[in-house]
Design brief:
- The chain has helices at 39-42, 47-57, 99-105, 124-140, 155-167, 182-190, 202-212, 226-232, 234-242, 259-273, 293-299, 326-335, 345-356, 364-378, 400-407, 429-442, and strands at residues 5-9, 33-37, 95-97, 110-114, 147-151, 171-176, 194-198, 218-220, 250-254, 282-288, 339-343, 388-392.
- It is of the alpha/beta class.
- It has a domain at 95-121 and 229-407: Rossmann fold (3-Layer(aba) Sandwich).
- It has a 6-stranded mixed sheet, sandwiched between helices.
- Strand 5 (147-151), helix 5 (155-167) and strand 6 (171-176) form a beta-alpha-beta unit.
- Helix 4 packs across helix 8 (226-232), helix 5 (155-167) runs parallel beside helix 6 (182-190) and helix 10 packs across helix 12 (326-335).
- It is globular.
């Protein structure tokens, strides 16, 4: 059976637009678009058949179904041609049972979805494989598009540059100068993207990239582009599949531009529409207190949309003051009886360090979600017996400087409760042995 998808306005304005058209917002009202699938056609297959199909494709060597995204192609971009799929076999990431951290928290059912175990080290790969594949097919069909571009706090630029390089498409990335880690900065440079460091913050970069892409010759790759959401929503399907097709009770994730929580909700809603799951998990959006516009809006019951100038935070990838996907994220929180909470620099740094002591290696954004989890456990909102998933959005290796600063106790606003400083010792076996004994005695 052939399936169909198109763009439509999230506010309900009339009109359907092809996925291969250069369009980002509704022509009538300026609202964001979303990808809509033909549910009537999708329902021609029952839940059991969909489950069997998705299960059979995991890890397949048949192109492109081994990808965690393209193994769900009917639910993503159903009519993409195989030769235009640009994939690094992203997705299929580990749903990690955080047993030792769970023991410390008296939580037997704590899980961490390790989305940073991906080609460029973040969940952004999931959306970028979709966007770049569609652009490749557009260009093959004589589109006016010549390049792709994005504003970024680091991870989006890395993913766009890598996938564009694999597709042979020029990429342009706009980064806020001196606000991106060296590990993130070198990724688009190494992949041959045109990297522009602007003397502004992310929101300023976003304003510039919107202007640069107005003539439709350069395709906008930020999360206001709904194609990205289609790839990122597959995380929801993976989680349910990894739990034998059952939804967890709670999912917590760090949020900045709010595309990821919108995508997760979309994935769960699709599975509910297809009768694959019977209930939605409660979604929790976790923000750094120094960049918390969504939390402030939630605190006012979403009666007012808050925009602000985001302050510097260890969680640099979510240092965003005017999130693009606000409307979609409000829907995600309201329709799942969800919550929004914040974490201070002190709270997030120590939450990440505690997790690291149990064998993880958390990025500071994952640490924001963990810190929010600790808060919701302590105030009784989350029951310690419930099944909880924390979304880890990036690999900790991208943020070495922040981790080093923590263990050297040099981070502003942070008291390092779990610091593990380097021991410098003389070339003396007795001194070394005495030092080891002192450290082991601490754990006795």
């Amino acid at each position: 059976m052939k399936y169909h998808a198109h763009f439509s306005c999230i506010r309900g304005c009339p009109g359907e637009y092809p996925l291969y058209q250069v369009i980002y917002v509704c022509p009538s009202c300026g609202g964001l678009l979303e990808v809509c699938h033909d549910l009537k056609a999708l329902r021609q297959q029952g839940p059991k058949d969909w489950k069997q199909l998705m299960d059979a494709r995991v890890g397949s060597t048949e192109w492109p179904y081994g990808s965690g995204v393209w193994g769900m192609r009917e639910w993503v971009v159903p009519d993409i041609q195989d030769e235009h799929v640009v994939s690094m076999y992203e997705g299929n990431s580990n749903l990690f049972w955080a047993e030792r951290l769970g023991d410390k928290l008296s939580m037997p059912n704590l899980w961490v979805k390790l989305c940073g175990n991906s080609h460029t080290g973040s969940f952004k790969d999931l959306g970028m494989t979709v966007l770049v594949s569609v652009v490749k097919q557009m260009m093959a069909n004589d589109s006016t598009v010549r390049a792709v571009a994005c504003a970024s706090t680091g991870d989006t630029s890395a993913a766009l540059a890598a996938y564009a390089a694999a597709a042979g498409i020029p990429a342009i990335v706009f980064l806020p100068s001196d606000r991106v880690s060296h590990a993130q900065l070198i990724q688009p440079i190494a992949n041959g993207a045109h990297v522009l460091a602007l003397d502004t913050d992310f929101d300023g970069c976003m304003r510039i990239v919107k202007k640069v892409t107005e003539d439709n010759s350069i395709y906008l790759a930020n999360s206001m582009n709904s194609l990205r959401i289609e790839g990122q929503k597959t995380v929801a399907v993976e989680i349910v599949r990894q739990f034998d097709w059952e939804a967890p009770d709670w999912i917590l994730m760090p949020v900045g531009n709010l595309g990821n929580i919108s995508a997760l909700y979309k994935g769960f809603q699709l599975m509910k529409d297809l009768n694959i799951i019977s209930r939605m998990p409660r979604l929790v959006a976790a923000q750094a207190a120094r960049a918390n516009p969504f939390y402030q809006s939630f605190s006012m019951d979403f009666k007012e949309r808050v925009s602000l100038s985001a302050q510097s935070t260890l969680a640099s990838a979510i240092q965003i003051g005017n999130p693009v996907s606000y409307e979609k994220a409000v829907q995600a929180i309201k329709n799942t009886d969800g919550l929004v909470e914040e974490a201070s620099e002190h709270e997030l740094a120590n939450a990440g360090a505690l997790a690291d002591h149990t064998g993880m290696y958390t990025c500071p954004h994952t640490a924001v979600a963990l810190a929010v989890l600790f808060k919701l456990l302590n105030n009784g909102t989350i029951n310690r017996e419930e099944k909880v998933v924390v979304i880890s959005t990036a690999h900790g290796l991208k943020f070495t400087r922040a981790k080093l600063g923590y263990h050297q106790s040099t981070l502003s606003e942070v008291e390092s409760q779990y610091a593990n400083p380097l021991m410098t010792l003389p070339e003396d076996a007795s001194a070394v042995k005495n030092a080891i004994e002192r450290e082991l005695d601490k754990h006795a």
